[in-house]
């Protein structure tokens, strides 16, 4: 996984005799993640949105032996197109053309200073890229916030989606309705300015990886922390704040019964993600982010949905157990 950059991304180096050096200085990546290498060539989609020119980075990987189908991968809030590397390689080997995007406001894409982030807008941007690439009825795979986006996309463009795959999507519950207190954009912004590698690593260990940290996850911590440590950190933090506001104010759970495309849910059972959970009263936190219950409820609410559960995995099953996840994904999309 990104072997070419591992050496420069790891935060600690081993010294002779088993001693450890001090942590290396955190990289400072540009506002469009300049300086962080992706495992595939990055292409750019130029678009005009909300009266401003923007660019959306994406990966387009064509298989050696195409099966005529395309998979579109939609990343989560703290993820990028590059974090799908294992899935891209497995899907391509199975004959699928694979498109992986960095949404506006994320990773290697534009960070507009003034933008009304909505799931509809991100879906429209994604649909515009599909039109440009001539892709019709792809298999849409969305993880975390990308799962929430994928659900909105399927509701907006039901005839333009062949299959829908939701990987530990957020938005399976309405946090505000459950009592999570409102948070202003300014409050989100101040929180994002304090992002650190240690805080990212601790959160991801507890939530993404079910309490089990491995060194192979470190590049993704450095990717996020370096982006928030770079010369455009204020722009990155501001867009992140706007995106958090979008997530908590646009629940999609109530519209699950309207989804009219074949849907597969891939749910790590040790996930406990709930945006703003740390802001909720202590007595309320334990009831939030219960993915064993939320996954079953979503499968019941979405007509004809199929549910595959990963008992020992957390919020990022595609990264914790890529081999097992890839097998389940490819088998799951083989026959809608």
Automatic annotation (TrEMBL):
GO terms for molecular function: hydrolase activity. Residues 70-320 form the AB hydrolase-1 domain. Keywords: Hydrolase, Signal. Gene3D superfamilies: alpha/beta hydrolase. The keyword Membrane does not apply. SUPFAM superfamilies: alpha/beta-Hydrolases. It comes from the Bacteria. Pfam families: Abhydrolase_1 (PF00561). Residues 1-21 form the signal peptide. This is Alpha/beta hydrolase. It comes from Methylobacterium longum. The lineage of its organism: Bacteria, Pseudomonadati, Pseudomonadota, Alphaproteobacteria, Hyphomicrobiales.
């Amino acid at each position: 996984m990104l072997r070419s950059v591992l050496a420069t991304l790891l935060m600690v180096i081993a010294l002779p005799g088993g001693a450890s050096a001090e942590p290396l200085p955190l990289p400072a990546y540009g506002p469009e993640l300049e300086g962080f290498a992706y495992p595939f060539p990055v292409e750019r989609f130029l678009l005009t949105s909300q009266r401003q020119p923007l660019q959306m980075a994406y990966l387009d990987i064509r298989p050696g032996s195409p099966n005529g189908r395309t998979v579109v991968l939609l990343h989560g809030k703290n993820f990028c197109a590059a974090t799908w590397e294992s899935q891209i390689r497995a899907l391509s080997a199975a004959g699928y053309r694979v498109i992986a995007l960095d949404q506006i406001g994320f990773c290697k894409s534009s960070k507009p200073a003034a933008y009304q982030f909505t799931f509809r807008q991100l879906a429209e941007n994604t649909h515009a890229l599909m039109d440009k690439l001539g892709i019709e009825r792809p298999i849409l795979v969305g993880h975390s916030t990308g799962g929430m986006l994928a659900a909105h996309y399927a509701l907006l463009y039901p005839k333009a989606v062949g299959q829908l795959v939701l990987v530990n999507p957020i938005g399976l519950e309405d946090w505000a309705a459950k009592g999570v207190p409102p948070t202003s954009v300014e409050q989100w912004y101040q929180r994002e300015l304090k992002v650190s590698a240690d805080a990212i690593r601790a959160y991801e260990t507890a939530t993404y990886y079910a309490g089990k940290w491995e060194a192979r996850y470190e590049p993704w911590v450095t990717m996020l922390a370096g982006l928030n440590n770079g010369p455009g950190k204020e722009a990155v933090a501001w867009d992140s704040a706007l995106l958090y506001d979008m997530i908590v104010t646009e629940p999609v759970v109530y519209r699950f019964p309207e989804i009219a495309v074949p849907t597969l849910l891939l749910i790590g059972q040790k996930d406990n993600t709930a945006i703003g959970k740390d802001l909720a009263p202590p007595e309320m936190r334990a009831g939030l982010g219960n993915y064993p219950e939320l996954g079953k409820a979503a499968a019941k609410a979405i007509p004809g949905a199929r549910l595959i559960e990963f008992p020992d995995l957390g919020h990022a099953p595609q990264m914790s157990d890529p081999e097992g996840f890839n097998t389940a994904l490819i088998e799951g999309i083989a026959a809608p």
